[in-house]
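Q: My collaborator sent me two sequences in one message, no labels, and asked for predicted structures for both. Can we handle them in order? The first one she listed is below.
A: Yes, handling them in the order given. First sequence, followed by its structure tokens:
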Amino acid sequence: MAARLAAYLVVAIVASTVIAGLIVGAQRDDNAGPVDLIVHNARVYAADDLGTMAEAVAIRGNKILKIGSDREVLRYRRAQTTVVDAKGAAVLPGFDDAHASLVAGGLARDAVQLFGAATLDEIRARIETWIAARPDAQWISGIGWSLDAVDEPTRAQLDAIATDRPIRLLSQDGQMLWVNSKALALAGITKRSAASSRGTIVRDRRGEPTGLLRASAMSLVDRMVPKPTREERAKALQIAIREAQRQGITSAQDLGAAAGDMDLYDAARDAGLLGLRVYAAISAERTPAGDLDAIAKRYPDDPLLKTGLATIGFDAAEGDPAMTPADLSRLVATLDSRGWQVAIDAADAGGVRAALDAIGAAAKTAQGGRTPRHRIEGLATVAAEDIPRFGALGVIASMQPLHVVSDALFASTPGPGLEPSPLGWPARSLSAAGAHLAFGTDWPRLPLAPLAGLRATVHRTEVQAPEQLTLKSAINGWTSGAAWASFDEHRKGSLKAEMLADLVILSNDIFAGAANLASAEIVMTIFDGKIVYRRPS
């Protein structure tokens, strides 16, 4: 009996020693090495499935060590630790822009910025100011005008500004190009010119072009614009990165990457100048299948730069005018079989249904493996009966919330047998039906402003109110939801231990009321554990 008791005692002592060792080891792991950065006195939203809130974040290297209370996190502070007092403001995962064109956006920074111009006179004044600063510019290019400012754009209005140089102004929804007579002449657009089936040359009563081009007809002028050099594009990329950091963006999904942009990204990465994480898409229509596979092999999964996303234009402005739903289905099936995630541009209810049909057909023939997480980009109206299909097929609804406030709802008939949902941009209905939401800015068509997009998602007009999201759900679309859309949810998009240390600190507590959200600004952006932007005092 005594021997048995002695044996039990030995086992108990050994077990206690092992447990104590594990505890000490865990504490040593927590405290081993410097804690580089602590953000405290904050309203930290983790953007996880539980809606977790905390007070502080500890960062070691480029990863999050811990989130928790101030007391729990501040115990990691050492002499070398940088400590940031958030002063009670919101701290979120860095924004992940799920739909942008970075190089194009950087290039557009040098265009006439017409966002917010309320009248024709204001548009004219901005153009004239731009010309005065760039007297030698060959083309006068602008972006961001709307029909709210000028309901009948004509070439004569722009001829009054300049006749010696072409003027081309892209609307804020990216669907219209307003040009002067010089631009029409260079493009060879006359009374006899014809546009494709997906484009329109707007004409006056005599059949003469008015100077307004819609959808694919815009390419008639755009192809005449001199192409930027590689050096100009590399400079534009750095401009885009700095602007993204200023807006709290730490990741971007480039849906407008042009030929050669992957090389620019790669060179920036090698030089240590790629200051945000990039998931770059490749055009499936302009890239042979063999080249697609070679690109995917060259740029595999990586926390900083990767591809694996193929885009298909199927709306009026972006798509091949000859592409039919059957063509779309064949292309999606081919890409799916090769392991590509597919992003289909489809804004109206008819295009959305065709995209869902194509993705559904590919799912029936899939051979297994990971869920492809195919995406529909820029969707604006969805037939009510198609909303449940997003969740059933695992399709990501990639939406650009600023279009909610900048576009009129589509008034055209969506197609035979289709009934549009009573509201455009049905984010809440899609989320309730199990769809994953990913939000983007659509830069440079719209401003690079995720905070403005967040406001647009949460605070919609009275008639749109049933489709507005809660604040946390809206934040998720810009963070964890966007990370899901790029297969990165295991390393970014939410704030928890071992996730990449990408954060944004705002100027106030946006969870304390609508007024705070309306006035919030970006105070600090932290990328890969380093402070890359501070708001000037």
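Q: And the one she listed second?
A: Here it is, processed independently of the first:
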Amino acid sequence: MSNESKSKQAATRDGVADEPKPGIDPTAQAPGPQPGAPAANEPKLEAPAPEPIRPVKAEPVRLRARMTLEEAFQRIGINCVRQIEANLPGVLHKNAESLHQMRVGLRRLRALLDMFEELAAPPVALHASIEWLAAELGPARDWDVLADSTLERVHGIAPVALRQAAHERANAHHAQILYVLREPRFAELMGQLNDWLGQRRWRPEDGLAKNSPLAERAWEGALPLLRKAEKRLTKRIDGLDQGDAPGRHRVRIAAKKARYAAEFFRDLLPARRVKRYVSHLEQLQDRLGLLNDLAVADHLLEELKGGNSQVAKQAAYVRGYIAATGQASVRGLDKTLADVAKRRITR
């Protein structure tokens, strides 16, 4: 056999010649590190962790002394809408506190529109959509408060099964909220609000009349509106039967609207007077808020009485407990109410 034949035979295995693999140069050296690539002993850089979603509280409303009442109304309204929008990411992640702050922004907006109802009323369809959103956001928050706050106040029992049942109801309502916030109606509502406020769509076609309160300086035009809020609160306090839960809730709403009104126009009012006034209203709201939470809890627990035996037994115990707590919490309320009724931010 010739030397050439021996070489060919040595280069074959099972009759198939070994050939260099396609695309690979057997004489090439292994590539070195690319420019900018980390060395083998250098730690790899990791992408920064995403910022945690945090609930967004209301930003202070900044008003100037020379503003008109219309300019102040526009700025306050936009401030409320921004709070609603800023909490949307958190609500979409089922963050309970973000939902609370979205509802606060919506309540502030509704309080503002109520305050200006005779001066800058929104179109009927826009108002209806605002009320629709408020109704959709409420139930989830009620169940959150029951599961995470009210049940924590109950002693003498560990309501594990009841808390789980409340969380399941809350989660179901949070899922419904996700559906609501992805509906075209929600996007349309936010677009309409921004347009209505940004373009001052409340104006007549021929513009504001010279004698319109909206054309006045903001601090002058706000005084009648603030007095109206004060008088409404005093009237509801005077007519209150302290044992009447719906009546207490109406007082609470009036106190909340009076507080929002003072906070809206804080920059145009004496600072110390506003601070004292708001502080007294907050104390009243805290007391009435606890009583309202207990009343809402009783209503929600009524819905759970038909559940499994463990949940039903725990619900019955908690209902009795919060009934006794509510009766005790009413004591001394009359002094707090009388103190607030005589408070005035306008003099």
